[in-house]
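Handoff note, outgoing to incoming analyst
You'll be picking up this chain. Sequence as last confirmed:
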Amino acid sequence: MALQIEALWEKAGFKPNDSQREAILYTDGPLFLTAGPGTGKTRVLLWRTLNLIVFHEVPPEEIFLGTFTEKAALQLRQGLIAYLSEVTKLTGRPYDLSPMPIGTVHSICQRILADRRFSRGRARPGNVPLVDELDQYFTVHDRWDDLLKAGGFEREESETITQYLTGRRSKSRHEAVAAAISLFNRFSEECLDPGKAAGKTSDATLQKLLLMYQAYRDLRVADLSLLQQAALEHCRANDVTSRVLRHVIVDEYQDTNHVQESLFFHLAGGYQNLCVVGDDDQALYRFRGATVENLVEFEDRCREHLGQAPRTINLGTNYRSQRKIVEFYSEFIRHPHFDWSKGPGKKGSYRIESKTIVAHSKDDTPAVVASAPAHPDDVCAEVAGLVRRLLDEKKVADPNQIAFLYPSLKSNQVKRMITALEKKELKVYAPRAGQFLDVEEALDVFGVLLVLFGSPAGGAASPGMHQFFDWVTRAHERGKVIVREDRALTAFIKERQEQIDRAIADRQLLVAAVGEQNLAEPIIDTIVARMVKVKDLSPRATGYVRRGLRRLIEARRRAERPLTVDYVVNRMTTLDWGVLDIFYELTGFQHFRPAFDLAAQGDEGPLCNLALISKYLARFQARQKSAVLSASFLQGRKFVRTFFNSFVYALWRRGESEYEDADDPFPKGRIPFLTVHQAKGLEFPVVVLGNPRKKKLEQKIEKIVRPLLDSRQGEPLDRIATFDAARMFYVALSRPKNLLVLCHYQGQGQHLNEPFATLLDDDFPRIADLDLDKIPRAEPKHEEELPKTYSYTGDYLAYRACPRRYMFYRHYDFAPTRAQTMFFGSLVHRTIEDLHQWLRAQAEAGRRVS
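Most recent structure output, in case you need it:
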């Protein structure tokens, strides 16, 4: 008897409802899935993809399965691998997902640019290294003067740019760079041609910014926005690319921008199998260029681009939350305060009104409560008391199952709540509530590094640096105490400082011997002879001169790549360690070891912070293109200025603070404080909305960009702030499974956004009346959690070799100290693959001719 998908559902314990079943089995033509919170859309996408691969013989490499976060992408990949492995057990047929374009949209765009199927003649495309937001910031910051000049701005006109783009007056380069990047990204997301756009405006400042943008594009930086544009242009340049993929499936479609929408319709143009899933009420990423109209108007755009209307299916059953939670957030989003209509005399709505959400749960348990309306201090004390009771009565298995959500973590309400929880002896994990560099582990690590390398001079600080140097002073003093209290650490620091001094002294002796004027010249025998005669060199440098120098020079001569004198001097005076090596050595001393013990006991916060520090240090080494430190870099305090005054200062100004483990985003033993944006796509047994208030922000960049667009206009500028607030709170209200708690602040200076002010009336359920016996007990893991996959070589053998190292690199994602090298076999494989693809291209060309 042939395998049936129903048998797989039964084996997996999955019972699809009618809408889910229809969506999974629909395989021919465009498909539009409207999916509210907790409606099982991830499982629907997985089963639909499995159905295509197993029962419709669609090769995995011909299915595009994209989403918008690393966590969601990992869940899709691991879930699909797990399901297909079950099919393999039953049928014996293996499935290889390695060639399948599955992941974040950005990663798939990068893959498209490297995929031979999208290149003419199947030629090997060039490598496109993806630049993330931090690298993009450093690129623009480092080239800022050049970009200003290209735009026709004077060097001191950063203030003009900041005021034009944000409305704030500031001479800070950092603020100008951050604002310009936001504008550049919006230009890229709309595929704006700077030259053509300049002809649509008479605004002199905007014309200059467009010239800056052109200069930025000329840098060939593969940032997240330009990467998408490059993928679209690459596909459009080859007419066969619209028939490479038989199915294009996109999750979270409300978060797509214009360039992504164009790419998806192009890729689906041949087979017309475009499936999109989304919820317009959860559209949060306008500030990143997302265009919710792509989802709301998808049916019309399908008719325009594909020539047919999509099958529309509403996944409307919520399996996550208690009934009263679903009813509350549904009532909230439909409240008359939010007028979603397009106005008098206009058809349609700015929201998909046909979408419905109904709770699968029929429970009548109390699931939504508010604090008593009171002063913020009293509200926070009451909520903290409730949290303490939830933990004491075992209503949650761990504190990280109670999430506090806020529009922003930079408010006084956050500080008040953290204080109230700490009075109840509850630990909090709130990295975005302040500077990450202010957490204990960051102060400790950077403090010891300041002791080792020396503190940067404050001097005449640029705008914004005064507070940074206050932080440097605090960290340095803290580092001195840590070193002083550990004799072994004191000796370690002293030894490393002596190595630095010795390397610098070696360099000075060598430069004096060869002559500074000769450093840029190719090395010759007479220069080598001078080096050999230098006295008082360290044993390490002496050994290099005697044993390795001549062999290196001869090898480079044979390769016809002569060495410069400076290169040789640097090789002789480079240490065998870098800043990341020092970090890992520090973790072995008594002050840092308790972080590992705490993690084993259930408190992972300190170790997660150390993991994040390792990533930043690895990022610094990558920027310097070296994992070790040279005397030339250390001499004259160049390293100190580059590392502290530039790199660490940039982290401080940007507020770099986020930590997220793809498997377990929040450390055990601590209550997570998140922005609503961070919480999107997550769920918790208990959620506290800590501040039902959001300030309306002026849409400065949107106002600048709108006139440059052709027919794409979007939602009215004067209603965007209201719509965005509605969607943000809707996301927050739909995260909890068992209990939603609202903070009701009252008093001077306090007010709630509508419709909270109306909904939280005298009859609204309050914390004081809540019967905890009626609240369901939360289990440690979700009962439908997807199975996790492991590899024999990457997991089992790594763990067997060293459990502590496995914990470091695989579980907590610490950055490795040195990059691994490519094996010769990889080069051979690439060569064979090039030949194979060339032969395939020749064969295909021959068939087309015949």
